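Record type: ASSEMBLY
Status: queued
Input:
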Amino acid sequence: DADVTQTPRNRITKTGKRIMLECSQTKGHDRMYWYRQDPGLGLRLIYYSFDVKDINKGEISDGYSVSRQAQAKFSLSLESAIPNQTALYFCATSDADRPSTDTQYFGPGTRLTVL
Amino acid sequence: LAKTTQPISMDSYEGQEVNITCSHNNIATNDYITWYQQFPSQGPRFIIQGYKTKVTNEVASLFIPADRKSSTLSLPRVSLSDTAVYYCLVTRDDKIIFGKGTRLHILP
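Status: finished
Output:
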């Protein structure tokens, strides 16, 4: 979805390096999410934010941090990358008043390889 | 949040109707059922959502029995471009969890 962009699209880095993945959206949504996907597996939630002042841990937040710089921007950082963080990372947004009826809009993904 | 169980993979042929069933035995009163589609190297895309009975849109139909312990996504007259992974989710006000999905392969 062109309304949700992620940079970079591909990144190769080395163990121990600090990495930042960025997500921007033009949909005007308050809610933003970061997921990772490993081969053959579903998506797992890392962090989510319901507005600029709200940050929440997902099911696999260890080793990651996030920053919600503005309504439109949500960054994911790996402070010291390790090989098992090699994965496809997706950013998503939504504007549901109720998460139970949420429709999430996903970005194109960032493929991260940690050597 | 209710765990969902769906087939790991399915094969079908072009022009056929495909039904993918998902079980969610522990679904709660306020939970909704949502399906997403994911093509390789792309993010998931919302297909359909329902609470009970039947929901239909231009892409698919969703059938939910009265006990809501399962749901069936129906894709009419599939084509090769429907080859993708389909995720069944039970969503609640504070959680949305993706499972492993069903890998649907459409054959010519």
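Annotation: The mean pLDDT of chain A is 91.
Annotation: The interface with chain B takes residues 1, 4, 35, 40-45, 59, 88, 90, 92, 98-109, 111 of chain A (CB under 8 Å).
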